[in-house]
Amino acid sequence: MRQDQEHQNVGRYVALERGLIDRAIFSDPALYRQELRRVFAPSWLFLAHESQFKKPGDFFTTYMGEDPVIVALGRDRKLRAFLNACRHRGMRVCRADAGAAKAFTCSYHGWSYDMAGKLINVPNGEDYPAHFEQDQWGLTEVAQLDTYKGLVFATWNPEAPPLDAALGGMTWYLDAMLDRDPEGTEVVGGVHKWVLEGNWKLAAEQFASDWYHVNISHASALMVMSPSGKGPKTEIVQTPGRQYTDPLGHGAGFPTHPRSRFDDRVVHDHYDYEALRERLGDARVEGPMTTGHATVFPNFSYLPVNGSIRVWHPKGPDRMEVWAWTVVDRSMPDEVKDAQRLYNLRTFGPTGIFEQDDGENWSEVQATAHGFMAGSMTLNYQMGLGMETDDGVHPGTTGRLYSDGAARGFYARWRDLMNTPAWHEKATEQVTEKDTR
Question: Residue 432 and residue 409: Cα distance in Å, rounded?
């Protein structure tokens, strides 16, 4: 870590016991740089889905925070992830989105790396000094990589707890989408990517906690979906439900009424709901499996109703890049998989009738964030404050569906990480202390 980096105590920005947040957390460049060091670098981050890697040599490029990353399946069929940066001058060694390769070669000076990240070729190698050890200059590998029911996560933090522990109680809610089929899940239709003007946290917190906006922001979409075509689908927007708040920053919200669904008819008719009740239990089938929204801290979100999974890649304090996949059950017939894919695109694809509403909201919120008065506003996150309980049905702490509870939990985790030195800072402090003795 560079010694000139300063860290702010963000406790003054988030007064969560009163449900208040300073708007500066969405626009301050210094806080954003601190997020990259203390939120993204130490956390488990979603990379890809296992089904994207079928044969040795298959690869996919993505980001961890703003760090470019290659995910590759080696000859030993082991999945690995590396910093997509040549150890010579730092240029990306892979500039394709996905594909198959035998090696990655930097197009600047020709350093080449195999699928396990080992440096295998250095042009003009005889001109390097005798102490140059080629096997010490492989690609920088993530500290840990693991999967959860098809989802691939990694972290740079060698001290991070195992993935299962980092997901915590969220796995019960994740399984409502990932564990419907004994054969597991797969992604179909590739990856859709688009850029939005807005801070990444705006999207992550909404998917964790915000059902509140549905009947306002999505009124036109609900009107289209209403059987009468004359008004919002009231059984969706005026419904009982619960919101889960995880102490690790994850969150999920979902209706608990059997008619609170707006899934695709072909997909709905495919399921054997009695078999699903036996597999997942009544609470999941009547709640988080039917519809709803969720975020795995910090920037992975999903929608069970249409199989949408997405990452909010940060691109500065004012911009994010959205990457979205469609997840389906492996045993679905092809026509059902295709129906789910098309339904996802029509609702939450880059031009989807719901997605466009959300993107406009986040961009509009960000548009005024840099004004002096508007940028120093205190924002109200008090809905549902003090109303969270253990309801005896849904694991963990839950509250009413209309609540900011999971958003407060998200920012509590964000605050704690922002105020805690990461593993790389501790290592730097130890080295500095030795140097001053």
Answer: 35
